[in-house]
Amino acid sequence: MSSIAVYAGCAAGTSIDIFELDLETGDLKPQDQHRTDGQVQWLATNPGSGSASGADSDVLYAAVRTDPATVATFRAGNRLDPAGTGTLAAPMAYLSTDGTGRHLLAASYNDDLVTVSGIDDGVAAGPLTSRVVPGRHAHTVVASPDNQQVYATALGDDVVVWWTFDEATGTLSDGGRVHTSAGSGPRHLRFSASGEHVYVLNEMAGTVVVYARDSSDGSLTEVQVSSSIDHRLQLVPGRVRDGSGPAPGPDAIWCAELRLTPDNRFLYTTERSSSTIAVFAVDQNTGQLSYLHAVETETQPRGMNITPDGRFLLACGEVSNALSVYRIEPDGGLRFLNSYACSEGPRCIEFS
Question: What are the structural domains of the chain?
Answer without folding.
Answer: 3-351 (2.130.10.10)
